[in-house]
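Quick board copy: two proteins, each given as sequence then tokens.
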Amino acid sequence: MEYTYKIVPYMYWQTTEFEKWLSDLALEGLEVVKLGETWIKLKRIQPKRLIYKIMLDEESIEKEYKETDGWNKVHTPNKFCLYVSEEEQAKVWLEYDHKKEIQKVEGLLNACKIDGIMTLLLLVVWAVMFSFSIGQGLVYKLLTGSLTAYIILFITYIILLPQKIKEFRGLKALKLRLEGKVKQINNQEYEKIHKDNLIRVVTSWITIIIFILTFISILSEDDGYMKHSIEFIDIPIVSLASLETDSTFSRMHQENKEDIDWKNSYEKKSNLFLSTQYEMRETGKVENSKLKVDEPFINQTIYEINFKSMVKPFTNSLLKRRITRGYREMEAMEDKGLDSLYIHEIWNGIEIIAVKGKVVMELYYRGNGDKEEVIEQVIQTLDCYQ
């Protein structure tokens, strides 16, 4: 293969280390073609000695010297310029204006300081917003994706802030080196810098992967009508029609609907912690005046959790969330073939939280059906997910 790629193990301010690494690659038969901040494109050549020079300010280079002594500019990122020359052509080091180069470093230091302060302030703002957001439903928000944006921002900030600190220190060290006030580093320090930068690259890619997975989960969300036939949904649920046995029952749709009939609809979501989250709403009407509820409805959410260890904390979070929202505490029921069952009876209805395996079901029903029948259908529904 004529070309190959490698991860860049050094930052632009680590000039001496960076230059040495590139020269070592040339001795291995690899010459720089294109250099980015994370990846470097290399061309396979016959091993030879090449001298590389990183310059932060292109204007500090003496143009005529560069042209007459065989120095060539390599494709580089915006923050610095990279020059290369064969050793026999580079009779002396590339001459440049030290004063301009130091001024460039000072400008980068000031910009880095401002970026670091802004990142720190954003992290503080994030912490305040996060503390107001979580309340007592931390696990619930985590699994249902409500905290996804906060998590991505947090990971981004904790990577950016140390990176800005390292960049600031690195530029200060570079300034001292240009002023001749610091000695060259040894091989052990080379290895430490190399390791630190590889960790930086890995953590950056982890952040990117988490962002991509989150974006994919958002794209996978699905809304739709329940329509007139409950068979339209091919997943096990507790059907309102199975509870309302009166012959006058029919599904009731909202008037003047635009895109979604929210009285009879479903949503499907997924994220890193939930393989699937189904949320369904169904509303009906009965024309029998002897029945107490003329507009029965049922709302149910089914959570298929990826990790068994998170089922119990998630269930507890659901129960605490009810209390913080002003609802009454639910009663734990005896074993009915489920891992956990909590109910709260309301006027002509019932609220249920049921758990079996890695599936949690949250149901709210108000209607004319028998409450024991509702519980039985919840059990049967959860059995279908096992």
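And the next:
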Amino acid sequence: MKYGALLLIALALLSSCRQRLPDFNDYKGNYFPINQFIVDEWKNHANDPIVFKKTVTLNGKADSTFENALQVDWKSVLPYFIKTDISDPKYLGHYKYYQYQDENDGLFNMMYIAIDEDAYTQKLLVTADSRTKRIKGIYIETDEEGLMNKVHQKLMYIPAKVIQIQRYETPLMGKKKSIRIQYHAVSQ
């Protein structure tokens, strides 16, 4: 049951060509809900056949494979995004919120920037088509500092096209580690 729900959420992340961004003032006092977005993606694209080129780059050395959406190890991909959700009311007042519309390219952007430098989710940018309100992309930055290392992440999702996780680890002792996992849709 747990893995079925996880797969349901995973496939939701696949693409949002049909996903519409609600009225930008319709979050009932909360910030943009990443986890709800994932669920909505699933509902819209559960049956879309997508093949990804998966590229893993570790400290500059890359390896690639091809996987269809059902082969993706979603239980290792989704937690990166799920953990960044700031829609819980407990986060209200902990982020600066900016919205702006770019008339030149027809995009509307919502940006959340953490006020507290110790917050896990440091930056969240949601870009939507101004006319259709369909989400065009999500970009997230996180920071986490433990006793033995610091971790900075950059996450990107472009509906039905790209899922990217970049992770930079700086240990207290030893070598730095850089990993990029990218799923790039090659067919649908």
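Board note added afterward: Residues 2-187 form one domain.
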